[in-house]
Design goal:
This protein is of the alpha/beta class. The protein contains 31 helices and 10 strands. Helix content is 53%, strand content 8%. A hairpin with a 4-residue loop joins strand 3 and strand 4. The radius of gyration is 35 Å and the shape is globular.
């Protein structure tokens, strides 16, 4: 006999109820379900007694591609109900879709992503025809809150319209051809027995047509094999309503899982009442006033909207619109998220936030203890137990000991894998940081099990998985990415020695085409700090690090000489030049450029009228540090006076201070740099000083508080004054406001004098 096809919408209670009723009525010999066929030998794992929601997590990795896919299942997923009811009826239950590693899923993070989103033209016409504001509202009115009579026929008509004459894309065609092969093969086996096929409604019209065609080969279709050398696998993971919710960005068939869970358990009227109560409770807990009159208004609006929309009982959007109309008194700057199934936008109204949270719910699934897990889960548990990190007490790692370094590397590997549970609150921030201890505090471990299972896609052990993730980051981090320095330090922290060498080789090659001196400076600072100071991680005086330093120095100098324009202050660029200065000081024998060549280049930038002011100031400071006998105080004074625009004076000084901070604070005599700076600033008119003040404040921020206090003390002494330098720096008002107030007073006084209105005293 022909197969019985049930086209469903993923995560629909109405479809799940139809599947359960159909299985109990027909008692089929076979139940074929849209799901990964490579799990057919492991379906017993799904029957272990898990607390839903859960998901089938599948992974794939080869030399060119890494992919992960989830197939979520909750109590009201039609696929889950087909599995459970089919087994209960004694049927042979089979998944008949392509494995999740298959290229057909390459651009799809979720197997059950809604096909209607990909073929939206027909659903848009249906929404217009039925006066529904969104596909979800249309679906609820047609199926979830509608009478159950004739549900299967309405579903067939709906999916026929949605699919229409639309040509499926190549990925969907591959999946449908494979599923049709399964249907034909099982029909040949079944003879007169009943075969029930449960799959996405978008695929059902095509599957019906393909299944009626003659089989191309006898027997069940073979399982596609991944390419040689590829790594793939599937495991069950805990899932949550939050992950399942379309409002959180998941491409599921239905949003608002908490609402639909209640609808599945108790029906639409109870679900509507529970949603209203949940929203009100959440708002009252957060001290948002909700009066009895508001509740009456919300109930009245909900009932009126349901009647207007032709719903026998209120649907989800009826309840939400009714609550919004009664509780939101302000104008909304953006559409309500359920009107277009969009994630919550930043700045959403607090009432809307609580309404979406009430719809979403907080349920998190739990796997049965006997559920198989990837080897990484067991390896991580053993590693954490070995370092004493299984409890909630803080863990301190002494990086000068083998035990402390091992514990640190274990926790850093978990960190780069994105596994929650421990977070570092103290420790070295970069390669030059003299800190030799780390503190790791215990934090929330929600999602830890799922994260470990998912991280198992990268390797069987913690060492292998972390190295694979870092290698993936190295491969995907482009030469213009500012995260190169972070990647380098993470690799060192994880102790991935072999990978470190490969990463450094890659960095050395990419530095020659890096366009951003600021990002290069971060790499240079990290590499130089490790090369100079690292006695913990074993990278000090590494030849590969020296090659990175040399390449970065040459590239930064080449880039900055070509910078022109009035671009304000660029702190990253100034920090990069400071790193070049340090490299020339501490590793000159490993550099292609010499201090003399660099000093000459700095002098050219200093005299370039088209270079930004901060870069000219930094070049002056770099020249001063590299050739102190050639740079004199008159040179500095001339350069400062040449910066005749008070708007750029602070930028110029910021560059100088970033490169020559020690030289500025070294002496306060009349021939000192500080005296030259003081002289130039003293020559500014009050109006010019007010213009220059914002950039000047930014420039002096390069000095730490203690050095700023020392400068203030010397300036007080230069003027023969008495007072506290610390008090001078701790004004009770913003200096910008004080300067502006003084300028205003002087303008008013001048205006009064001009008109002879100031009274004499």
């Amino acid at each position: 006999m022909p197969a019985v096809f049930l086209g469903v919408r993923h995560h629909s209670p109405a479809c799940a109820r139809l599947v359960a009723d159909t299985v109990r009525r027909l008692r089929p010999a076979y139940v074929l379900v849209e799901g990964p066929a490579d799990l057919n030998g492991r379906l017993d794992e799904l029957a272990l007694g898990h607390e839903l929601p859960i998901a089938v997590f599948s992974h794939y990795r080869d030399a060119e591609r890494t992919a992960t896919t989830w197939a979520p299942l909750c109590d009201y997923s039609p696929e889950w109900v087909a599995l459970q009811e089919g087994r209960a009826a004694g049927a042979e239950v089979l998944f008949v879709d392509l494995p999740s590693w298959h290229p057909a899923f390459e651009l799809r993070a979720n197997r059950y992503a809604d096909a209607e989103a990909r073929y939206a033209e027909a659903t848009a016409r249906l929404c217009e025809r039925f006066g529904a504001g969104s596909v979800d509202a249309l679906w609820d009115g047609l199926f979830e809150v509608a009478p159950a009579d004739g549900l299967a026929e309405r579903l067939d008509a709906y999916f026929d319209l949605v699919r229409g004459d639309a040509e499926a894309d190549e990925d969907d065609q591959a999946r449908e051809a494979y599923m049709a092969d399964w249907v034909r093969a099982v029909l040949a086996e079944a003879g007169t027995a009943t075969v029930l096929v449960v799959g996405g409604g978008f695929h059902t019209p095509t599957l019906r047509a393909l299944a009626a065609q003659p089989a191309q080969a006898p027997g069940r279709p073979g399982l596609p094999a991944p390419p040689p050398g590829a790594v793939s696998g599937s495991y069950l993971v805990p899932y949550s309503f939050r992950q399942l919710d379309a409002f959180a960005g998941y491409q599921s068939g239905m949003p608002s899982p908490a609402y639909y869970q209640r609808l599945w358990e108790d029906g639409p009227e109870a679900a509507a009442d529970h949603l209203r109560q949940s929203v009100v409770s959440r708002l009252r807990v957060r001290r948002h006033p909700v009066s009895t009159a508001d509740l009456v208004a919300a109930a009245t609006l909900t009932g009126g909207l349901a009647a207007l929309r032709g719903h026998a009982v209120p649907a989800r959007t009826d309840v939400l619109d009714g609550l919004a109309g009664a509780l939101i008194k302000d104008d909304l700057s953006q559409p309500l998220p359920w009107s277009e199934r969009a994630p919550l936008a930043p700045g959403s109204h607090p009432v809307v936030v609580e309404m979406v949270a009430a719809c979403s719910g907080t349920r998190t699934g739990r796997l049965h203890p006997d559920t198989p897990a990837p080897p990484l889960v067991h390896d991580s548990a053993a590693r954490l137990a070995a370092i004493g990190a299984t409890g909630t007490r803080p863990l301190t790692c002494d990086l000068t000991t083998e035990e402390g370094l091992t514990a640190s590397r274990t926790l850093h590997r978990l960190r780069v894998l994105g596994v929650p549970g421990r977070h570092r609150t103290a420790g070295p921030a970069h390669g030059a940081d003299p800190v030799t201890t780390e503190r790791w505090d215990a934090g929330p471990d929600t999602g830890r099990d799922a994260a470990l299972i998912e991280a198992g896609a990268y390797g069987a052990t913690l060492d292998e998985a972390a190295a694979t993730v870092l290698a993936e980051r190295a491969r995907t981090t482009g030469p213009t990415d500012a995260q190169l320095a972070t990647l380098l330090f993470d690799t060192v922290l994880c102790g991935a020695t072999a990978l470190t060498d490969r990463l450094l080789t890659t960095l050395t090659a990419t530095l020659t085409r890096h366009p951003d001196p600021g990002a290069l400076g971060a790499v240079l600072s990290t590499a130089l700090g490790l090369w100079r100071h690292d006695r913990v991680y074993g990278t000090a005086r590494s030849p590969l690090l020296a090659a990175v330093i040399d390449g970065a120095v040459s590239r930064v100098l080449w880039l900055v000489e070509g910078v022109h324009g009035r671009s304000g202050t660029d702190p990253a660029r100034l920090t990069a030049l400071a790193a070049v200065r340090d490299a020339l000081r501490h590793a000159p024998d490993h550099l292609t450029v010499t201090p003399g060549d660099t000093a000459a280049l700095a002098l050219r930038i200093t005299r370039d009228p088209h270079a930004p002011a901060d870069l000219r100031g930094a070049a002056h400071g770099l020249h001063l540090t590299l050739a102190p006998t050639e740079a004199t105080t008159p040179d500095l004074a001339d350069a400062l006076h040449a910066t005749d625009d008070p708007r750029t004076l602070g930028d110029w000084l910021g560059g100088l201070f970033a490169l020559a901070r020690e030289e500025v604070t070294a002496d306060s005599g009349d021939g000192s740099l500080l005296a030259a700076v003081d002289s130039v600033l003293a020559d500014l008119t009050d109006a010019e000083f007010l213009i220059a003040l914002p950039a000047l404040r930014q420039a002096f921020a390069w000095f730490p508080p203690r050095e700023r206090e020392r400068i203030a003390r010397r300036l007080i002494e230069r003027r023969g004054l008495r007072g506290s330098a610390r008090a001078l720096l701790r004004t009770t008002a913003d200096p910008l406001h004080l300067a502006a107030a003084r300028a205003l007073e002087e303008n008013v006084t001048a205006l009064l004098d001009r008109h002879g209105l100031r009274s004499a005293r």
